[in-house]
Design goal:
The protein is mainly beta. It is built from 1 helix and 10 strands. It starts with a strand and ends in a 6-residue tail after the last strand.
Length: 128
């Protein structure tokens, strides 16, 4: 299996955060499935794109169950070394904490796309 890792705060050659795999993959797509497994949030955007979120996260406005995300369309994705924020067309937002306190394990998120390398957001390899 092929995969790429993303260390928060590190960008590609051009340093353009707007063309990250997450922004390219999700913009304009609707959430088709949402569920919690353990403390993780698993989102599907059609049959070929899945996003697993392992870090602390905050939904605004809050939702009582993950299935309330189904049907929301991604307007944009903002990424920095401190957070990934998925903005929805209805004004909602899902913020994923990338600070050291936000991690519950080694990985923050994992993006699976049919026919493309898996993308994993992980802690920086250097000591905190």
């Amino acid at each position: 299996m092929r995969f790429a890792t993303v260390t928060p705060g590190v960008t590609g050659d051009a340093g353009d955060r707007m063309t990250t795999p997450l922004a390219q993959s999700l913009r304009g797509l609707a959430v088709t499935e949402a569920r919690e497994a353990d403390d993780d949030l698993r989102l599907a955007f059609g049959p070929f794109i899945r996003l697993s979120i392992f870090n602390r996260r905050q939904l605004t406005p809050p939702v009582t169950t993950p299935d309330r995300l189904v049907g929301k369309v991604v307007a944009a994705v903002e990424e920095s070394d401190r957070a990934v924020v998925i903005l929805f067309l209805d004004g909602g937002r899902l913020a994923i904490d990338l600070t050291p306190a936000g991690y519950r394990g080694l990985e923050a998120m994992m993006l699976l796309r049919a026919g493309k390398p898996m993308v994993v957001w992980e802690r920086a390899a250097c000591p905190q």
